[in-house]
Fold each of these.
Amino acid sequence: MSIVYDKASGLISLHTRRSTYQMKADELGFLLHVHYGGRLADADDLSGQLCLVDRGLCGNPYECGRDRREYSLDVLPQEYPCFGTGDFRTAALHVRSADGSRAAQLRFAGCRTEKGKYALEGLPALYGDEAEAESLIVTLRDPASALEVELQYGVLEDLDVICRSARIVNRGDGPVVLEKAASFCLDWPFGKFDWLTFHGRHAMERNMTRQGLRHGVQSVGCARGASSHQYNPFSILCAPDATETAGECWGACFVYSGEFLMEAELDQVDQTRLVCSIHPDDFAWTLAPGESFQTPEAILAYSDRGLGGLSRVFHRAIREHICRGPWRDRRRPVLLNDWEATYFDFTGDKLVSIAQKAAELGMELFVMDDGWFGRREDDNGGLGDWYPNEEKLGCTLRELAGRINALGLDFGIWFEPEAVSEDSGLYKTHPDWAVRVPGRDPCLARNQLVLDFSRRDVQDHIIGELSGILAGAPISYVKWDMNRSICDKFTASLPPERQGEFAHRYVLGLYRVLEELTAAFPQVLFEGCSGGGGRFDAGMLYYTPQIWCSDNTDPINRLDIQYGTSFCYPACTMGSHVSAAPNHQTGRTTPLSTRGCVAMAGCFGYELDVTRLSPAEQAEVRGQIACFRQYADLIRLGDHYRLRAPEEGCAVWEFAAPDGSEALVQAVYTRVEANPVPVHIRVRGLRPDSRYRVEPAGPVPAGDGAPDRGWSPLPAVLSGAALERSGLTLPPPRREHQSWQIHIRLCP
Ligand code: DGJ
């Protein structure tokens, strides 16, 4: 049993394969957090570790009376602490009652278990059937206000994760306003931690930062209407000595695509608290009597096998229990996207000539990006009018798709459904559908406005428009883009006192539209995008099993971006393309082999005018595609090991078959020096007692691949033990940004 509740003591333990999460409803009825860490025995009760000491000026619950018992919510670890009643740390719940008071205090009122993983209506959530998951629902109640909170815990024992969410119900007879409703609070009564967060900007997303926690509250989050380029809704707390391969780590992944806040607090007695919520700055949700509010979900995981071990838990959880639909388990097509090949400057014939070359080279899908519809000649207008510009295409959309199909390629298309331009027919007909504050000029970004997705009529319109296009032509792929942050938040559909619901209602609307479209067109592969990776989160991955990782296609920058992304998200979710050299974002020239190597560590594709490739480059592209096909399953399903970070002068990573039968090591030199210090790596995930053949993988580009200086360690035959304990020395670089791919397979 993965959930054990001892009614007599109030102790609840949730067990996964390698972790235990423990809480206790104490004699005053408070639900205290006891432990989240290594797996315990059922009989282990760690609540004795909670230290009751009078801390001075830390208040006591009323019923303690003269017997203060050194009991204070201000220092006790809790499952769902409330603002206003004696815990002065970061709270999970802030409420405003009808009388204006802002206090709540929750007491344990019972719990129940359910088979299978609970689902959340209208929200993405990790899924698991009765054989895979059990759920615990703990009911807490505020005796004074009749507010009820159901804490939901999904326990996936084999997957090694625990999911958390909360449902807040107003059982009173007056309205209550939720000002903050966290998805979880996690307390550590002792221990020192580093905090790993992932910050960035457009075209440079998810840079990892690791910092020791200091006293006070530190946070990451955003109120831009989306999870954002700036901070990813994922973070890790780990022991200061944790490495890639060893040490205790705890990860929290918010399954949400909107505004969020993750707060880490080191308190006065060196206890640590992590709280994750919809961003409260932009949130105020009114609950009328009887109404409830469901928070988004967070996935929690613990690993004592270092950061790499933790990442692999999240990779599996996202790949197998967040991503859905037929594309979850299929190799994704090698695509050619025309964006960096043509931008807005194309005709139907030009696209077909690029597609023809793409087909000759072995690609499988042609994607027509921005510029095919309405009066969209550049990125200043036309958004919202989702009818093909037949004059520009020289034919109907169906005919164009047919011409592409005739080349042996599938056909895909770009949309930006959440946006609208002021010069569009849609805006002229429905100016009130654009998000803006009445009487105030709206803030423009890329000269566009945002459609009010919190409105049902807007959602229905977009579902209708996109359904018409998808049903009207053989379209097998959709790139769902969104190219601005949301401000001027206001919706005509809500009264003044409920405008604080807009940001979350927008996300709920987005999820509804995506749910309807993906259900109606299950065979269509949807790729998420938001100016690249501005909404790269587990919420979007529930609907779109891959996301364009970044608008930056420079392979050297991509190493950092994909490295940071890999802490939570598996390679099979990262859209990654080979583009032209010099690169359009950085001006840097890199070898085609390196661009191929980096793009292969994701959903592989091309984004350049392939008609301009030299014969030698074309041959190399053919070889890259053949190589990718050979290793696609290993990359998609293999265990991902980060062997060296890009900042170490040579980025190295590996995909190992879960059964240890083979591995692919990919390496890119990010720095080249005279008289180089050898780069040495230990290969992971192999069978120690088996023998492996180690050889270069991938096409050997002319003048690029063979090591010089008369030295090469490859090919070799070595045992798994030797490859893990001693390892491999990589051939030194002959020139800047050289890459290596090494295939390791069991000897027959
Ligand atoms: C931003 C995306 O990230 C790009 O790949 C491209 O689709 C453009 N939008 C098109 O406007």
Amino acid sequence: MNENNSKINASLFQCWVCESTLEPFMTFGRMPIANNFLSEKEFNDEYFFEMEPAFCNQCNTFQLVRQPEPQQMFNEKYAFFSGTSQFMGKHFEKFSKQVLSYLDEDPFVVEIGSNDGIMLSNFANKNIKHLGVEPSSNVAMVAKEKGINTTINFFDKDLAQKIVKGYGQASAFIAANVMCHIPYIKSIVEGIEVLLRPNGVVVFEEPYLGEVIDKTTYDQIYDEHTFLFSAHSVKYLFGQYDMELINLEPQATHGGSMRYTIARKGTRTINKTVNTILQSEEELGLNDPKTYLQFKQNCENDRIQLVNLLEQIRKKGKSISGYAATSKSTTITNYCGITTDLIDCIYDSTPIKQGQFNPGTHIPIRPHQEFKENYPDYAVLFGYNHSKEIFAKEQDFIEQGGKWIVYVPQIEII
Ligand code: DWN
Ligand code: SAH
Ligand code: ZN
């Protein structure tokens, strides 16, 4: 199923989308599996890979040239449960309303990466025929227990054919923060081609390359994120299969995302924003290789600044903790070499992360309830995309003299 590894020789690789030859423009160094929270006795066997991004000049796709096998990342121990954010619950309720507006008669909705059912619950509640495709069995079981129809599987072309046999074609194929996780992306689009009704729609949203470049949010780059898409790269990918972008809608979620709506060519009206955003990407230089050399420089500068700040604080004898053991924090801590020398522990609300250590740099993860009992002088907000929700919950920290360290859009103490 997965054609890993696309390596041609020591320094050249093949684009996952158009098969052109690629050369990485930088390396983030040795990286662990971002969601592999582990116990002390597992430290010696921890898996690492060299994390190198490349930009394809042919199809304009930003990608990792290699990553662990999908089964190493998405399995019965997957540590991210979508339902941990109430704000995201509301976001997906609104998302589902938009999808409802596209549905035809006797609708059937398929979602991939359905996780704990945060999105599909909005269709199940309305008795709309639906199917979630979710390979991580622990999160999938949460959805199943809520009565959401879920198959524990990786989506690809073969599975799409089985779904059509069992359920018929789909009115809508939806996904959030999963299309960018799949290196065998061509098999996904081939699957969509088989699965989608002639007048069906594809709606998915993912962290947006334009935001990552603009804000240097390099922490969106980790093993699971094979791709950081743009309107240009998505247009190229689906264009290969006679499908076209009909709408683009920027989203504030996950530090800046883009929602892509796609249909078979000529079946739906194309919204004006499609061209506006394609044009803005040219202006931002998203298709210019020089942009990525500058991005590399910006990542290195940010790393130096963040480490210097943490070191200065520590030299003054002050304590620092992390808040929210996000996947993104695995990139920050490993790329910046942040260990318990700088950060004592990371507080997090996910039970299976608590009592474990963070991947690679082995900072202990503590239950978020303990934050209140043991306020540090400073807390690094690794879950900056949830800042509203977290600041509201943790008002007392500020009232008692604590300070947040944020690093997006720039490094700041608040
Ligand atoms: O793309 C992905 C997105 C959708 O989710 C996946 N590859 C993995 C995951 O990324 P992440 O881990 O960076 O997601 P979040 O939503 O930024 O972070 C979730 C973590 O933050 C959880 O461990 C829970 C924690 N958290 C917390 O401790 N207190 C979250 C909230 C809202 C809180 O109040
Ligand atoms: N959609 C949710 C979860 C995103 S995390 C949200 O936005 O919060 C990414 C999810 O995609 C994980 O649950 C992972 O198990 C799943 N996934 C990874 N590869 C997949 C594939 N090939 N098909 C379906 N789901 C996949
Ligand atoms: Zn390419």
